[in-house]
Amino acid sequence: MQIRDALSRAGDEVELFGWVYRIRSGKEKVFLVLRDATGILQCVIGSEQAGFKDAAGLSIESSVRVNGRLRVDERAPGKVELRVSGLEIIHKAERFPITKNQSAEFLLDVRHLWLRSRKLTNVMRIKAELLKLTREWFEKNGFTEVTPPILTGSNCEGGADAFPLKYFGKKAFLSQSAQLYLEALIFSLERVYSLTPSFRAEKSRTRRHLTEYMHLEAEAANCDIECNLKIQEELIAHVVNGIAVNCETELLELGRNPNKIRVKLPLQRLSYESALELLEKKGHPVEWGSDIGSRDEEIIMEEFDQPIFVTRYPRGAKAFYMKCVDGKHAECADMLAPEGYGEIIGGSEREDSITKLLERMKEEKLNEKDYEWYLDLRRYGSVPHSGFGLGIERVVRWLCKLDHIRDTTPFPRLPNRVTP
Ligand code: 4AD
Ligand code: MG
Fold first, then answer.
1. 200 CA distance to ligand 1 middle (Å)
2. pLDDT (tens digit, 0 to 9) for every residue of the chain, 420 residues total?
């Protein structure tokens, strides 16, 4: 049995397995708080019990099996405690290195142990639910999951941020985005999505960048920007509102009010120019043509308590594959999360004319040869299509109200850290 179930079984005789979360020993009794994947439970061992001495000598994080009878106790966490009649020590732990008030860097050094904390356990559960709800939505809406490669010869998001690697004497990279491959797959499957790690060699140490993150990407044929934004809104509402219900306990333990994150549709839209006007009004002018930075996003989002779309950026501020409109703008949108969490989705309608795509590649000084196969997609049955990429950890950070993105993933990869 697991602790979650034991909490509603007062009166029953049970056997439980877990780790020692806290321990306090007196002359008469040992109070041991047991932890398993589902919760914590107070266990009491009286001095008359055979295992009393062993229990008194236990250290935190030791693994044990206990049995006994559950009874109601108003003072215990969960209001139920276990009167232990048998204790089996599976492994007596050495002195656990993590104590209160340790630095963030130290906790990253012992990340493999810190993963046992309630905070990270709750975050990992919410992340798992997010992945589950994501797949659920795509499956219901006619998308096929595909598995694009991580090793690639074609850069998607530009050279500077790619991790190069040796590949049997050829140049290759770790994938920054599966987009170009998903674009190839729509010609057979029409609506596809993938969940893969993406890699960004961004040296900047910010609270929202990882060098390796989970990227959810989708691409659809016969889909213009309107259709694209509708997919994004419905997906985000399904996932976030699902988490607000299914992960209420975890959110509350993390200090997040589930009602505060609920998404109401439709999401508001702000053109790039209106965003600039707003920034100007708030005393933070940005020059036309520049991308909107993370500080700018924070300032814009002071005015909204729901995610919004910022649409139609100047084409020069965005990637080569985006469709151009009116000679100046890209048919794109970024979804920004409220409360300063910034960009969570980047998406666009893709340029489907080979002539215009080649012009943009020239402007961006990209080598045509590197993209020969991609250009073929505009030679054989080209079709208007759209897609987007969502940073899973960015969304988790927002939903869990986390200060830093590193706590959204078990083993964060940061510019100064690849271990443990
Ligand atoms: O905006 P980005 O760079 O867009 C693309 O890669 C497109 N090719 C995606 C597509 O259309 N298929 O990245 C998409 C999202 C961002 O909105 C952000 O949420 C996340 O990926 N992201 C990161 N998350 C964590 N750490 C980083 N360094 C990230 N860089 C981007
Ligand atoms: Mg982006």
1. 9
2. 999 999 999 999 999 999 999 999 999 999 999 999 999 999 999 999 988 999 999 999 999 999 999 999 999 888 999 999 999 999 999 999 999 999 999 999 999 999 999 999 999 999 999 999 999 999 999 999 999 999 998 877 777 799 999 999 998 999 999 999 999 999 999 999 999 999 999 887 899 999 999 999 999 999 999 999 999 999 999 999 999 999 999 999 999 999 999 999 999 999 999 999 999 999 999 999 999 999 999 999 999 999 999 999 999 999 999 999 999 999 999 999 999 999 999 999 999 999 999 999 999 999 999 899 999 999 999 999 999 999 999 999 999 999 999 999 999 999 999 999
Ligand minimally distant from the alpha carbon of residue 347: 1
Ligand nearest to the CA of 391: 1
Long-range contacts of residues 292-297, Cβ cutoff 8 Å, at least 24 apart: 292/334, 294/206, 294/208, 294/342, 294/343, 297/336, 297/340, 297/342, 297/343
Closest CA to ligand 1's atom 31? 391
C-alpha of residue 389 to centroid of ligand 2, in Å: 8
- Edge-to-edge order in the sheet of strand 144-145: 144-145, 191-199, 212-221, 385-391, 342-349, 332-337, 308-311, 268-271
Helix-helix angle 225-246:392-399, to 10 degrees? 50
Q: Which ligand sits closest to the CA of 336?
A: 1
- From residue 392, alpha-carbon distances to 84, 119, 192, 207 in Å are 43, 18, 17, 15
Closest ligand 1 atom, CA of 179? Answer: 12
By DSSP bridging, strand 80-91 and strand 39-46 are parallel
| Encoded tokens for 238 | 């399904």
Nearest alpha carbon, ligand 1 atom 6 = 177
For the entire predicted model, the pTM comes to: 0.96
**How close is the Cα of 292 to the center of ligand 2, in Å?**
10
Sequence-distant (≥ 6) Cβ neighbours of residue 55 within 8 angstroms: 25, 30, 32, 45, 49, 84, 87
Nearest atom in ligand 1 to the alpha carbon of residue 348 is: 11
Bond prior to 420 in cis (omega within 30° of 0): yes
Gyration radius from the chain CA atoms: 26
Q: How far is CA 91 from CA 39, 63, 226, 235, 255, in A?
A: 20, 5, 58, 45, 33
Contact 163, 174 (CB under 8 A): yes
